[in-house]
Amino acid sequence: MAGPQCCSNPPTLDPSCGAGHVEKLGGFKSYVTGSPNSKFAILLASDIFGYEAPNLRKLADNVAGAGFFVVVPDFHRGDYYVTEDCGGHRPIGVWLQDHGTDKGFEDAKLVIEDLKSKGVKAIGAAGFCWGAKVVVGLSKFKLIQAGVLLHPSFVTLDDIKEVKVPIAILGAEIDQLSPPELVKQFQEILSSKSEIKCLVKIFPKVVHGWTMRYDDQDEAACKPAEEAHQNMLEWLVEHVK
To answer: What is the DSSP string of 24-68?
Structure first.
């Protein structure tokens, strides 16, 4: 079950942020950025706070700069999690009943089908917290060419055993949802599968959510987030392009 770390430091959402625009893909409003003529696409699956988070869209724009068409779907259909401090009235457990990662996985398949229908030849995906569970599902069925899980939530050992594409897992030293002990078990499983390329890294002194929910005016917070973003991008360039 999601805990306090999953809900901490919520972003200030901005539907107009980013260099891209919003259009429908697979039936979902999606933030898209980069050349629509690119044959290489990246799907970014958000955390519980949704696709209007400025740091998420900024990252999408950066990934697009590497020659990808980047898609950030609104898998929550506008119903993002709102913390009690921000006026929300649903506990996270109740919100998750309405927004299960299994539904997110099925929704992601529709977006991927739409991308392929538009001529995209190769697709990678990265997921943050809630979105990481969606991405690991895609990786189990070879629906993507490569995946990246950033401070994943709900990902199990059985999930990792079924991964069939190159996968990177970027974890936090301080993480109640995927503690370092669990991430190390992920690594042991992947290392035993010689046919699957993997990267597993635990970032010191950071907490769950550090790649998304950081203050972009705080240099100490930006540095590890940007390092993780670069690791993610390098992995996707290597295994998708």
So the answer is: EETTEEEEEES-TT-SEEEEEE--TT-TT-HHHHHHHHHHHTTT-
Which has the closest alpha carbon to 189: 151, 157, 166, 167? 157
24 vs 27: CA distance, rounded Å = 6
Under 8 Å between Cβ of 59 and 170: no
Cα–Cα distance, 202 to 75 (Å, whole number) = 27
Report residue 1's pLDDT band, with 50, 70 and 90 as the boundaries: very low
Q: How far apart are CA 9 and CA 83, in angstroms?
A: 9
Whole-number Å distance between alpha carbons of 133 and 152: 7
Please give the Cα distance from 114 to 39 (Å, whole number): 13
Q: Which pLDDT belongs to residue 33?
A: 98
Q: What is the pLDDT of residues 82-109, one digit of tens each?
A: 887 776 778 899 999 999 999 999 999 9
Read off the pLDDT of residues 162-205 as tens digits, 9 standing for 90 and up.
999 999 999 999 999 999 999 999 999 999 999 999 999 999 99
Beta strand 28-33 with 69-73: parallel, antiparallel or unpaired?
A: antiparallel
Q: CB 25: neighbour CB atoms within 10 A? A: 23
Angle CA 237–171–232, to nearest 5 = 10
Q: Which of 143, 138, 199 is nearest to 167 (CA)?
A: 199
Q: What is the pTM of this model?
A: 0.96
SS3 state of residue 190:
helix
Residue 159 has phi, psi (to 5 degrees) of: -60, -50
